[in-house]
Amino acid sequence: MASKVVYKKKAASHVSTDYRSLHSKHVVKRQQAVGYLRKSTCNSVSQVKAQATEAMAEPAYTVPEFRQRSTEEVEEYQRVSTHVGKGLAAIQEELHRMRMATKAQVDNLAIKREVQERMSRKVDLYEEGNKLPDFLVALRPHTVWEKTPVKLYCTVHGHPRPVVSWFKDGVPVNPLNAPGKYKIESKYGVHGLIISRSAVSDTAEYSAVASNPFGTATSKATVTVKRPAGGAGESCQLGLVPRLTQMHPSKLEVTLLERFSVSFGVEGGSISLACSMVVVPDLPNLPPLAHWYRDDHLMKAGPLAEMKVGGGLARLNLPRLAKDDEGLYTLRIYTKEGTTEHSAYLFVQDAVPSVAGAPGAPMSVKVFDINMDFALVSWKPPNTTNEAAVSGYFVDRCEAGSDHWVQCNDTPVKVCKYPVTGLTLGQAVHFRVRAVNSAGISRPSRRSQKVTAADPAESERLQVVNIRGHYDILIRDDDLEGYVTIPGEPTSVHASEVYQAYVVLSWTPPTPRGRARLWYIIEKCLAGTEEWTRINTGVKVQSPRYPIFDLLDGKSYQFRVFSANQFGSSEASAPTGPVQKADEHGVPSTPGQVVATRNTKSSVFVQWEASKVPNSLLGYYIDARPAGSKLWQPCNHKPFRHTRFVVHGLVPGETYVFRVQAVNLFGLSAESQESSPIAVEPALATPSSPFGITLLSCNGSSMTLAWKSPKHCGGSHVNAYYVDRRNADKLQWKEVNVSAIKERVYTVEGLTEGNFYEFKVQAGNMAGVGVPSEASKPMKCEAWTMAEPGPAFDLSFSEVRSDSLVILWKAPVYTGASAVTGYLVEMAKKGSSDFTAVNQDAVSHRYLQVGGLEAGETYVFRVRSVNADGVGKASQVSEPILAKALPGTQEIVCGVDEQTGDIFLSLEACEISETSQFVWSKNYKGIGDCPRLSASADGRTSRLTFTSPDKDDLGRYSVVVTDTDGVSASHTLTEDALNTMLELSHAIRNPIVPLKHGLNYEILEKGHVRFWLQATKLSAAASYRFIVNDKEVTSGEGQKISHDAKTGVIQMTVEHFTRANEGTYTVQIHDGKAKNQTSLVLVGDVFKAALTEAEFQRKEHLRKLGPHFSEYLYFTVAEDCTVLLACKVANVKKETKFTWYKEDEEIVLETAPNAMSGSVALPIPQFSRKDQGVYKATLSDDKGKDTSLFEVSGQVFDDIINAIAKIAGTSASELVLQCTPEGIRLQCYMTYYTEEMKTVWKHRDSKIASSEKMRIGGTAEMAWMQICDPSDKEKGQYTIEISDGVNVYARSFDLSGQAYTDAYEEYLRLKAAAFAEKNRGRVVGGLPDVVTIMEHKSLSLTCTVWGEPTPEVTWFKNEQEVASCEHTKVTFEGGKFASLVITQVTSDDSGKYSINVRNKYGGEFVEITVSVYRHGEPIPEPKLGQPKTAAPAASKTSTPVPPPKTPTPTPPKSQTPSMKSPTPSMKSPTPSMKSPTPSMKSPTPSMKSPTPASTPVPKSPTPGPKSPTPTRSVKSPTPTSRFLKSPTPK
Question: Nearest CA to 846 among 796, 895, 778?
Fold first, then answer.
């Protein structure tokens, strides 16, 4: 049957957590608490503790109101706070322990009574004497399902009281090896073993062995754990166990283990809060009932809060943090005993602002008073510490499901509340807010929850009528009103929100209102007038809310409202009273006195007086700053409602000051007065309980015990320990020592051998005596006689890092039969019982550095002592230690004091408390009062100084900071490091003036020599002197001495440096106690070099008095590859003459050099080897003369060629293919080419040398390579490489495939055309252009012709063939000489004669004009004959001239190479001829006739390139349109 859990809401005036950010509590049934407290020397403290105990017994603690106290009351309050308030947690823990003990007694009361009854029946027998152990109630066997608990109980009796040990299959059961798995109980003679979460592996035979000095007894039982059907991989069929499936979560036993601590997050980040727990029974389908609370408000799972419970873990994940998430988080789990819970505070810091100096984001955006087109948005203002104050806020909205945000207000609103209008009925929206200050706009707040615009009065106008309990009839008020056209007037018009920025009017909707759509009209007027004006012109207000923004300051207004619909408007409502916009309340008043008190080593408890004028207080912001700093840091980022707060995350040992500001919707109040400075230290309280009680030795009548110091000292040093003992079979404890024990080792005397004893220890400090430790295990008083040594004890750790630590221990009290010779250390991971040896060989010292640890892993250790007889008992297992360095851990620094020269070791602690001490040791042995060492401390830093350091001080030094979480470090001082520091110490104690630069010299202008040195630092009182050749020199004629204390430069300038200045120069410096000396030896070759340089500079100075070259001749190469010899001149004038020379011969330029420009250049175009030589430039005028020489040869020539090659290579075109009659040519055009350039042609990566087969050449515009008579061997990749000495510029052409085929065909065609041109018929010479002859004379026209084969010769007159006859005789002799002889010429013989010489390769046509005059007539002017019109038949033979088809490659930049064009000549039926002028028989001198060129025809079998004959060939008389037949063969 499930039990009913009743929850009672806590009153607002009760704060159960006291708002301490980290606490745990258990709510149980109220039971009487019985406890034992040790007497204290301070009666008042005891009384206070009693009062505190009584108060803590109540279910809730009522926080008293903060009130003003008198001086005496304040002192009493502080005293009580010191001794009670800060020790309250420890007392509460003790009370909780006592409550749980009492409850256990009640739970086992029935068993106790049964045992007592059985024991009473045998009391006579028991009292007769000592008895063996006897089991009154034996163990019984169990068979259970997997994952269910198993409880084994037995009752045993004996005298003395037996000690019971538990075994599983003969192996001792150790609960420490499996935390949470096993629990061993022993109460009132009833002994139990509880297996919390059984597994199949727990199936075994369990036995309880009871023993006392007179014997042992054993009880055994078998436990069988079964696994339900389905296997381990499937869910267990717990339906087979009906009793378990009906359990309620509140019936589970839950124990929290690891708990989440105070956490810090950042806006936009994520964080997880988790608690691990042990659940009994742990059922997979029945997780514990867990609730999460934030600031006592129940949280619900959602996208912003992910919750998970199960698997021994309760986790809350906050994936997208905002300041809204800050607060006190509580995990509350319902258990069999009530509830168990844990709380801790989560702080959420502002994210980095988008603009430096911008405020933090607002928070807690909420929406109220939602209507059809109106909503009221409110939020909380952010805290501002060092930023400018917030000047206003922007409100944004976006529709649900969209990320498009729209700004609602044009100007920032100053209050944290804003009315938003313009919504649409049924529209779902989100809101967010951004803060504004002088620096910029903040990040947006977290968006509000989704709200939907709706009519809130809609539900009020609905009525539900039930008919006979079966039917529900829905009736609207509109149905009851009847048919209404014009609505009634609104009522209750009033100003619901009145602020300086706006006023919100509210009213009640009219009754009746009608069914038509309703809207409202608002009017205003100045109070006392009746001049009403409409406010919402053009806006139909549908909600009974409306904000008004445009009211004047200082004016009172009245308002009234009309209802309207499509039928008309109602009467006006009653006007409001006078309304004037104003911030009625403003910010809250300043909080009162702020008091800060110690809490923990990283937190401070702050409380303050509440604001007397709260004005709708939202909470408080707390700020802190370190003492001495001016920068405040926010302690909380969300307003805190109460007047006391625990500030976490402070630096231990640091001193802080606090202030408080009150917050409401108008902003932040003025800052309160600052609190008194307070150091971050733990609150003063009694120490926690010691632990780890272990037996070190026993001689039969005494037992030597040791224990570990409390984990928490309570804020002051533990100065006392008290030991209690009792017999294992008794309940009453007896004090062992009355006077305090200082050490943690004590020998208890007066014991009875053979008896079992239990012990407990209490620690005390100045606050009193703390709670006692848990009772030790029963220890048998039996003398140790083994030969091996006893256990080492007091294991501690130092220098814990992520991969190493140092373990220390104390020697065993019991040494065995021989002295202890060493120690062995073993380690294991937490939760494991498999210990491994750390050191194979025993170490003689009592410390060991352990390396090779896994970062973040937890380990336990134990130590065994070794002597000659063997290995002794293992020590008690150490406390688990995490392999992780403390945040901010520093290492020991070894250095030398800059003032005193002392060698020291120093450590700056990452944390410290008020009671902390720095404990130094050498080789892990305390240094004590060693005269060789002195230790000092200043705040967080401690220094160990060596008084007389030498080799005896070598070793490992370590320091431990007490009362911290293990702050420690070590440093090994080596001999090399000591020697280095000794040298530095000597330098500090015997100071010298440090020098940046020793004595040096430099040659200045005019030939002056400057001797100088530079000290690192010089004071104003520094003194120095220059000594030259053992004689001090001073500033005077010939030298100047000076210094500059700021730069540390000391210098002496010698104006006339001569041979007499050879020698040694020394400077001695004194500056306070420091001194130094530096020298410079200036003799021999060094002096000669300095003297030569000084004389050169002196001459240079004189040279520069007249016209001179400021930069001597140098060369540059222009973009067009023109070489320029340039120089720069100075101190020139118009009369200055500038002259160029080459090899002493003057160079005269077209334009005279202009020296006044300051720069002169000599251009050398198309530079080549011929331009080598010595160039000279001269400057001269009446002030002087200067000369600059520049030799262009050798390396200079190569540099110029390389510079040209760089430009040419950069501008080089791709290779171009060109065919010629001789072969195939590859051409590369560039800006300029000369054969001196480093140019390489390659064929298939092999270098090509110029030969008859491969010809290499070039012009000024290009480089070429010709393949003569090409064949298939010449196919492949061809590359030209142009090198400038640094880079190589390559251009390539692939002469293969179709490219080679086309080129080879073109080459053959051009070769044939050239052959034809060479062998065609032609007139070699002998014919004149014009012949004038007198009548009756004989005319002989004779010429020499040539052709291979022999050409045919035909003569024409006026384009008619001349036949040989008596009057006209035509001859052709020897295939070489052709003649036309006309005897007895007449006027009819005048005309145009021509000769046509032609063979199969072509021919030539030459014309001669013949003029015949009569005797006595004047000789006519030479006149060319006009040809007659050709016969129509001749036109049929005309051949049109096609354009040339072979393209001519165009070089880059329109540069046409100067070479013969390979374009073939065009076909002509009458090729031109060049004939010699023949000698004529007539006395009339011959005259030259014009020789027009022939017309080329492409692809003709008779190509005609230019002939090598003279240029007197006569153009054929056949025009383009009138070709004559030609005997040209086809």
Answer: 796
